[in-house]
Amino acid sequence: GEPHGAANADAARQAALAAGDIAAALQAEMQLAGMLLAAQFGPVAVDEAAGHIRLQVDGVELVVDHVHGKVACESEALRVRVEKVLQRITEALRPCALDFED
């Protein structure tokens, strides 16, 4: 089923986008991405200030840079696996590319 709190995070994201508050939308999106990663891989720690999501998979620590869509970890195979999941999450949340930079 749907991860606990996902509907609230999605509603917050939609409300922020409707209000034009991109920063709040990205924070809600990071929370939602964290929930979806947790559903796939286990517990995560979301650090909104740093824009990072931390998790452990099979004893290997990963750091997801949500802002840039990058994954850092010691295992190349695991990094690629988590990057693919993150890409699917991003495509689901942002079906078309949006440029938020000036």
Write up what this structure looks like.
The chain has 102 residues and is of the alpha+beta class. It has 3 helices and 4 strands. It has helices at residues 6-19, 22-41, 76-93, and strands at 44-47, 52-57, 60-65, 70-72. α1 packs antiparallel against α2 and α2 (22-41) packs across α3. The relative contact order is 0.13.
Helix content: 40-55%
Which outline best applies? globular
Uncertain stretches of 5 or more adjacent residues: none
Compute the average pLDDT: 88
Number of strands: 4
Distance between the termini: 38 Å
C-alpha Rg, in Å?
Answer: 13 Å
The spatial strand order of the largest sheet comes to 1-2-3-4
Count of helical regions:
3
* Class from helix and strand fractions: alpha+beta
Strand and helix order: HHEEEEH
Strand content: 15-25%
The largest pleated sheet is described as: 4 strands, antiparallel
Set out the fold topology.
Elements: H1 6-19, H2 22-41, E1 44-47, E2 52-57, E3 60-65, E4 70-72, H3 76-93
Helix pairs in contact: 1-2, 2-3
Descriptive keywords:
single chain, 102 residues, alpha+beta, 4-stranded antiparallel β-sheet, 3 helices, 19% strand
Task: Give a brief description.
With 102 residues, the chain is an alpha+beta fold. It is built from three helices and four strands; from the N terminus they run ααββββα.
